[in-house]
User: What shape does this take?
Amino acid sequence: MNKNLAAIYQSVVEGESSQTAKKVQEALDEGINAEVILNEGMVSAMSEVGRLFEQGEYFVPEMLISARAMQEGLSVLKPALAKAEVRSTGKVVIGTVNGDLHDIGKNLVGMMLEGAAFEVIDLGTDVPPERFVEAIKTNGAQIVAISALLTTTMNNMKGVIQAICAAGLRKNVKIIVGGAPLSADFAQSIGADGYSADASKAVALAKSLIA
Amino acid sequence: MNKNLAAIYQSVVEGESSQTAKKVQEALDEGINAEVILNEGMVSAMSEVGRLFEQGEYFVPEMLISARAMQEGLSVLKPALAKAEVRSTGKVVIGTVNGDLHDIGKNLVGMMLEGAAFEVIDLGTDVPPERFVEAIKTNGAQIVAISALLTTTMNNMKGVIQAICAAGLRKNVKIIVGGAPLSADFAQSIGADGYSADASKAVALAKSLIA
Amino acid sequence: MAKKYQELAIKDPTDFLFGVSPYPVSLKNGLTIGGGKVYPEINFTLPGMGINPETMPEVRDQYAQMIGDVTKRAAELHADGFSVEYELLPDLTLNPEWGAEITKLLREKLDGLAQNEAIKTCLRVTPNDIREFSRPPLLRHGKFVDDMFRCFELCAQAGADLLAIESTGGKEIHDDAIIKGDLAASVFALGILGSRDMKFLWEKIVSICKRYDVIPSGDSACGFGNTAMVLAEQHYIPRIWAALIRVMTVPRSLVAFEEGAVGPNKDCAYEGVYIKAITGAPIALEGAEAACAHLSPIGNIAKAVPDLWSNESVQNVKLLAASAPTVSMEQLIYATRLMNKAADKGKGSALALRDLFIDSDSAGDVQAYILRPDVALDLSRQIIAEPTAYLRTRKAALAALDCFRKAQEKREITLSRVELRWLDALSRQADQLPDSEEEFIAQMRPTLDPAKVNLSEYDL
Amino acid sequence: MAKKYQELAIKDPTDFLFGVSPYPVSLKNGLTIGGGKVYPEINFTLPGMGINPETMPEVRDQYAQMIGDVTKRAAELHADGFSVEYELLPDLTLNPEWGAEITKLLREKLDGLAQNEAIKTCLRVTPNDIREFSRPPLLRHGKFVDDMFRCFELCAQAGADLLAIESTGGKEIHDDAIIKGDLAASVFALGILGSRDMKFLWEKIVSICKRYDVIPSGDSACGFGNTAMVLAEQHYIPRIWAALIRVMTVPRSLVAFEEGAVGPNKDCAYEGVYIKAITGAPIALEGAEAACAHLSPIGNIAKAVPDLWSNESVQNVKLLAASAPTVSMEQLIYATRLMNKAADKGKGSALALRDLFIDSDSAGDVQAYILRPDVALDLSRQIIAEPTAYLRTRKAALAALDCFRKAQEKREITLSRVELRWLDALSRQADQLPDSEEEFIAQMRPTLDPAKVNLSEYDL
Ligand code: B12
Ligand code: B12
Ligand code: SF4
Ligand code: SF4
Ligand SMILES: [Zn+2]
Ligand SMILES: [Zn+2]
Ligand SMILES: [Zn+2]
Assistant: This one.
């Protein structure tokens, strides 16, 4: 591998943002193709980070730092990429259902989806059905991800799905749900397209649904 | 209270069948009205037995012995009662659902219903839907009581209810269900009219449904 | 080749302790049960759903999820070994191929765990006694008998380490006996019918086990003793009657060991305390951590002498933290860790903890009292002094009733007025049991309803 | 009138024990918590369902059923006393009349039990911190604040014995701090924001309690410490980071006691171990029997020093034996019976059992290690030697990190290579915390997002 590409890769894995930015610039100056820099330098570094996480070598804080390094690198790369038009894996609208303020689980799911190159629109917590509908429209999302942590709010997910149906958007989106009190059974019973018990599996699920 | 009536009452409470039979005959000979013997001597004795059970003074074995004493007394009384036409509280068809052999809970429910003067038709265990339907038709039952103790057979109750509907009998009968893995929620979800967690409450439930 | 137990394997109450048994059972992978440690034995079952060809994919998914969940949690909590009991559901025995398929699925997951985490495990498989689907039960021939034995064979081939059953011979008359407080009928069901059926059944099971190199573990009198306990817990029958039935199940369950079972005995078999005393085989038991499956008055005392500690069963529903099987796994690990920590500190420490378990419950309920190691040793000794199953069962009744009376006098238990009335009534019944088995059978014969029980199934 | 804790209420590890606390709390009915016995504290919650005017009848039925079930089981198992925690659900605090109505329903059932069975009980009511429904949270005024305090008042009137809360001031920045491994932000959230909000909040709660003659019990740092523990359990953050956060929650939770809380502290507050050491107040804790609500690496060690022993929470679903709350009740009764039996035999016996609880878990996870009574006493002493919440939180961090390092050297715990890397990284961050609170605030100010946190709500 090219020396600069290798340095980019390593700086992302180790989360050294300033180094990433610098090396991306050097690689561009050297005349390396922007897409090659992106894929071989950065995207592959992020999958290495994912692997390190699965192995227990990295925790979420380290992943976040690597993700930031990647962002820094991207901002240098953007102009050169402009015409190449990098497609995101897909657009996801995510939020915690109304009445519920738990958001850590949802945030982790969002973060992991971003790590897998999804574009994530995060509506926050205590989100009423209308806001989900609106966000799908404005963003043309393919996936809606809904989180609930309380036994008294999990049923509100049904309301969100109904609102999406009522707005005539049901066939445009895949709906995935999660949160501690839920189960695959429950997800099916409210008419969701998928359920996953944790964030890593949520990514696989999202990918499989829009494959 | 008349001496013979008092003796009948006591013999039923204490479960001395031969004494009951003898005293019922004496009371009849004395010219006491058969319905008075039934109600004041025996039915009220059985409610005392019920009270003793609720209080923890009696267990099921004692209740069974008292019930037998009452039967003996009744057999002496029957001819005299013939014209008086004693109405049962109601007719109940009871059984354990197909695939399930647990019957102790069901038997206790049946026994308690009999104690409360219901006429009970017991279909046994592992009862397919058709047999419930048939028994309702043949006996003109007002109540169907279904028991299930296994998580894998509780859903078969739905099949019984569907068969009753399909046979056009749904409006003729009230359906009650019970057994350890069930809940009131579940009962509602399969379209039953009532659920109770134990045999004593099952009696109150049955009464309330045909009141 | 029937063994005969004539003296106790454990003689001294201070040698009667959780985690250690005179004749430990070792698996092929080296895991030893009864060799010094108590291991968790986790059980789980399906949530509300049917089993049929359409739902079988979902059934598989459920079992895969449950075994995945519990093995994951065991690894996270650094368990150093555990057992899984897969107790089949009737449809899985009625369709032996399905039962075996799930056995295989569990086996593979456990093998994976052994490789990745170096955790040693044990898989106990318990087919159902489906012979009672015919009424009166056909115990020795017919489709149900064939399918049941085929299920044992297929599960053995599919990777079971242990085979077990909760057989029900004699239960067709015992349920009524419980409900009526009929001691003679209970003795007949246990000491004559049940014991004869056990002999037939266990000869077969042991020979299947030999054929496939699997361990014949044991047979619970659950349908007798636990049915009574559950009824007593609901105030339908006196506790003293349930306690008496428990002791009377001992000779019946012992038959499995006479025929070659070696343990670990089944979790729900509280008569296992006596079986361990008599045979020296390790046993599984259950208590507080099995409240999910049945409430009981013996939640702590049952921890006194087990070698495996079980949750009995829990269905795969979601609790706030995780699935119910995961929650049970965690609870069993903490419970056994405590016992093993005490054992690590030496026998004195283990005995001190054992005595706390005992003292927690033994005075509060006569059903707990009879699980006291000293009481169990004393009654076991009297039981095995008799030569036949009938006489042992009769002795169990007499000795237990005598024991209750003395315990009340010594104020080691407090029987209510109502229970004392029952003590007298049961004693009167017990005193009438004849010495001669033939005489007893002749007495009982006319009381039996041929629509309920088929005596020829018992060579009678 | 703020109290100041400058020395430990418990000085000797051998006086640090379950069931006994220097300042027991006695209720009107005579039940004493921390006076020699550990009592169960049962919690329960609704199954999957919404709360609104249409469902309120069903909500009432659910609570009536749950309290009925658990009191029945407690009576059957001869419990001699227990506590019920009614932790409201957000809609019940948002509609204080509903919250109070359920309080009354529970009160009446418990009063009935006292009459019929002579069982003494305690009712803890925990309204929710609904202030965070506004984002950034409005902590001192507005509809949510008013409704929350009204809920406290109405529940006090409706019959609560104890009032509690799990307040969340500072959490709006702490969640991120956890996820990012940002020590300074965590210290700021706990030592500055959380502690200031606690002062404001507990002054008010204590005055409400005085008005209605109710006991102000305590405030859990659950949203900080348990959030971290749950994340560590899922491998999202290092265990050492979660352990560190736990110790850093102590000064924040202590503020409630400085303002007049007297215990028993909340079940889910594992920092309670430190609170008990410092204040002498009794505490509730939870562990293995709370696996239904969250898995943890501290299932046994949490039994070392509690005065109430809880299941945290379980929803009203049916298990095979009975409803899940009934099952929890039974498990708690057995767990506490064991402890009380040990105490009955004398202090030596109780200490021996306590040490088994400790040894079961303390070497396996650093989060368990910091709950060791000796460790907690040592760290508590260092924490209260400092004068302010900020300095105490900083000291908590420094002392805990030092303690982890020494524990690793003494091989009392085994940190993995990855955890050791984190130990170094966290130490580097801790060493940079300035002496001066003003300086620290000035450092932090520019890093805060005004859309997330409103500093004026903290007098900053
Ligand atoms: C941390 C926590 C809090 C924090 C929340 C912090 C925050 N910003 O989110 C605080 C303290 C604020 C809090 C408050 C309350 N909580 Co809370 N809380 C918890 C706790 C301990 C952990 C939740 C958590 O963050 N877990 C870590 C994350 C990573 O896991 P996760 O959320 O499950 O998410 C993972 C998966 O579920 C999945 N996932 C999640 N969402 C989605 C979405 C999709 C689309 C997919 C595919 C996957 C997915 O992936 C995630 C990552 O792997 C749980 C206990 C538990 N066992 O879950 C209680 C718990 C959920 N809380 C509970 C309660 C009662 C409350 C309060 C009412 C308490 C009170 N007295 O005030 C309030 C309610 C606030 C409100 N209105 O919502 C109860 C719920 C009981 C019930 N009836 O439902 C629980 C179960 C605890 C208990 N008592 O047993 N809580
Ligand atoms: C006794 C018992 C047996 C006895 C049954 C004896 C008999 N003749 O019924 C025997 C040993 C034969 C047995 C066999 C099996 N059993 Co079983 N059994 C039990 C046990 C311990 C007690 C049941 C009982 O009799 N309780 C006493 C009565 C009085 O209570 P009840 O049945 O709940 O009834 C009351 C109420 O529910 C209500 N009620 C009941 N029916 C009705 C109906 C109406 C209309 C109403 C209103 C009310 C009502 O009123 C009753 C009186 O108060 C339960 C454990 C438990 N916790 O329930 C397991 C249990 C039900 N069995 C179980 C299992 C697995 C089995 C077997 C598969 C075991 C095996 N290895 O072979 C077989 C299956 C047999 C079959 N095909 O059905 C599991 C079920 C698990 C699951 N997935 O569902 C349980 C839960 C035990 C466990 N492992 O946790 N069992
Ligand atoms: S109750 Fe438990 S032990 Fe008894 S038969 Fe049923 S499952 Fe087996
Ligand atoms: S996790 Fe438990 S303790 Fe923590 S806030 Fe939620 S309910 Fe309260
Ligand atoms: Zn069993
Ligand atoms: Zn079992
Ligand atoms: Zn709590």
In short: The first strand of chain B starts at residue 90 and ends at 96.
